[in-house]
Amino acid sequence: MRTLSDIAEEYEFLEADERYRLLIELGRELEDMPQALKTDATLVRGCSAQVWVYPTGTEEKLHFLADSNAAITKGIVALVISAVQDKPAGEVAQMDIAAALEPFDLKNQLSSNRTQGVPNMIALVKEHAARIAAR
User: Which terminus in the chain has less CB density within 10 A, N or C?
Assistant: First the structure.
């Protein structure tokens, strides 16, 4: 998975249509999430598309599997995950993920339908991280 800074560097120089293509490409690069993990418990609420996020790994190296049934939304999920992937759970729990995503200006680049679930994705990731860090 690419780092968020690498993605931001590329994103900055792209036009709107190319940014959509990059998001779709990022979504395709996500690790496959087994169908068995796509349950009500891993579903992110408040998204216009279905989005699932599942934490794996350890407290020292938190790893997420994620998926969506919509290509651009899956790319947005990939952005969120790339901000936190393989970092310590305590660090992720304290991280300002929304600030890390600011260079992408998602609210102005995408429709409100596509971005309405982003705060819920972030909240779920942070909630998982806090729970794992507290073990």
Answer: C
Note the pLDDT tens digit of each residue in 24-67: 999 999 999 999 999 999 999 988 899 999 999 899 999 999 99
- Is residue 23 among the annotated active site residues? no
Contacts of 62 (CB under 8 A, 6+ apart): 55, 84, 85, 86, 87, 88, 89, 92, 128, 129, 132
Global pTM reads 0.91
Q: How many CB atoms lie within 10 A of CB 24?
A: 16
Domain count, the chain: 1
Smallest CA-to-CA distance from 87 within 106, 117, 60, 110 is with: 60
**Structural domain span for residue 69:** 4-32+43-133
Residue 37, domain member (yes or no): no
Written as six digits, the tokens of 45 are 């609420």
Q: Which of 22, 47, 101, 132 is catalytic?
A: 47
